[in-house]
Deaminase (Micromonospora echinofusca), 185 residues
Amino acid sequence: MGLLTFSLNLTLDGCVDHREGIVDDETRAYFTRLMDESGAMLWGRVTYEMMESYWPAVARGDEEAPPDMREWAVKLETKPKYVVSSTRKDFPWTNSHHIAGDLREGVQKLKDATPAGVLLGSGKLATELDRLDLIDEYKLLVHPRIAGHGPTLHEGGLPCTRQLELLSAEPLHNGAVAMHYRRAR
């Protein structure tokens, strides 16, 4: 069984608005490495649609992008992508699959079938999966910014405090810190 790893950019005050993070070669390399290490991506519908609106065009060469972004897009094109949605059924982007029905059962089956692990990159979905006790690790890139607005991580709350064990903390040259935690069980 593979691990379900939640990874996201966030500011010091917990803002997960993707426009608030630092986007540079180092942060792109960090997320490329995470994607390379995982067997599949897992997103909610909103994140999928945001990604689908841009990255396939970059992979095809229809959008101008630096070489490292194009490399990311090409890798993302071939990576299996799983989407949780109760409102959309059709996911035409290459290698995209719908997880429907019981969330716990669907995500557990995905973990069981993906020995290299699943990389979760959606904040709202992470809250739901955390409530179901399905997230095994957290790889958060904490940016040296205070946004002063939301959305924030786990806005809807969790039923209880999650205890985590720090596995590593790696400062980047841009001031962000890559934090790797495992659920203490």
Q: What stands out?
A: The first helix runs from residue 25 to 37.
